[in-house]
Specification:
Helix content: 25-40%
Shape: globular
Structural class: alpha/beta
Strand content: 15-25%
Number of strands: 16
Largest sheet: 12 strands, mixed
Bound molecules: threonylcarbamoyladenylate, magnesium ion
Order of helices and strands: EHEEHEEHEHEHEHEEEHEEHEEHEH
Number of helices: 10
Radius of gyration: 20 Å
């Protein structure tokens, strides 16, 4: 199959929506990362997503909606807390896990009785979802285990020949995936940290929210798989006072053993690494999140063997950065 990157003109968006209506899959931009979508009510189309990505079929997909009115078509028992959070954070980078509507194909939810629902805010995504006029289920549009795509070119590199169109909406603003909050049980539980921070959610809820950790992986099946891993080995530094000194030492050790390292660092720390090779993650932690997956992919393009990533404070978007780096490093924290 010939894969084309399409600019987001009205005609091209209509062409993408026609592929969805015809039971095909299309990659589209969101404000978090690119998604690979299909009509959530077309089971054979949904299966094509798993094939194209090489995704295990027990990992459920998020359903993307254009408007609040569509929520009732995929979920039931919307609680007052769910409504409150929807009106505060949607459209945006929050996925709510709710009781699934019985008719929604099991392929979407991997047989779970719940469904993840999200209303993205990216303007091109919204035009695309409106043109589709159906719930669109989508995981991130990367080959399974690779870093999520934040540019159309990343999707093209992974899925070339496997899908017809990549709708190009430019670089994804946030750069890490949505926050996944499970509201299907008695107490809300955070299943994945992402674009909406814990602090923002707790302020709106008025209480502390429990985080589900690695020991209860079955609750969020995606958590058990290898993730966000470039070919290069990733080492992730803890955040502490002499972090840059520690990273220099590690870099020199890797280099001495022929490892070809590069450091991902904040703009303000660049000079501390002197002549060592660095990638600038930006001035703010939001920049770091925005650039992280692109830099992990760039390390492979530039043929670096080891990526040493700076640690960040664990509040706000920092928690999502730490989570992604722990996974991409396989827990190799220095
Ligand atoms: O920002 C995002 O969320 C992006 C864009 C494309 O919307 N999507 C995304 O999808 O990251 P994916 O499939 O790569 O990650 C979805 C995560 C997985 O960890 C999955 O296990 C979890 O959400 N998930 C989906 N539905 C669930 C459900 N019903 N219960 C528990 N976890 C669920
Ligand atoms: Mg993913």
């Amino acid at each position: 199959m010939n894969t084309e990157i399409l600019q987001p003109t009205t005609e091209n968006i209509a062409a993408c929506a026609a592929v969805i209506a015809g039971g095909g899959v299309v990659a589209f931009p969101t404000e978090t990362v690119y998604g690979l979508g299909a009509d959530a009510y077309n089971e054979s189309a949904v299966k094509k997503i798993f094939e194209a990505k090489g995704r295990p079929s027990d990992n459920p997909l998020i359903v993307h909606l254009y408007s609040f009115d569509q929520i009732g078509s995929v979920a039931e028992n919307i609680t007052p807390l769910a409504e409150k959070l929807m009106y505060k954070f949607m459209p945006g980078a929050l996925t709510l896990v709710l009781k699934k509507k019985s008719g929604l194909p099991d392929a979407v939810t991997a047989g779970l009785k719940t469904v993840g629902v999200r209303i993205p805010s990216h303007p091109v995504c919204r035009e695309f979802l409106r043109a589709c006029n159906c719930p669109v289920c989508a995981p991130s549009a990367n080959t399974s285990t690779l870093p999520s795509p934040t540019k159309a070119a990343h999707v093209y590199a992974d899925l070339k020949g496997k899908i017809r169109y990549v709708l190009d909406g430019g670089d994804c603003d946030i750069g890490v995936e949505s926050t996944v909050l499970d509201l299907s049980g008695e107490k809300p539980r955070l299943l994945r940290l992402g674009g909406v921070s814990r602090e923002m959610l707790e302020e709106e809820c008025g209480f502390k929210i429990e985080t589900v950790t690695g020991s209860s992986v079955a609750l969020c099946p995606g958590m058990k798989y290898k993730h966000y891993s470039p070919k290069a080995e990733v080492l992730f530094s803890a955040y502490y006072e002499n972090m840059c000194g520690g990273i220099c030492e590690q870099y020199d050790n890797v280099e001495a053993s022929g490892g070809n390292p590069v450091i991902i660092c904040m703009d303000k720390n660049l000079s501390k690494y002197e002549s060592r090779r660095t990638y600038n993650a930006g001035r703010t932690y939001e920049d770091y999140a925005h650039n992280l997956f692109a830099l992990l992919r760039k390390a492979d393009e530039d043929k670096f063997g080891v990526v040493i990533a700076e640690g960040v404070p664990s509040d706000g978007i920092g928690a999502a950065i730490i989570n992604r780096l722990i996974k991409s490093s396989g827990g190799r924290i220095i």
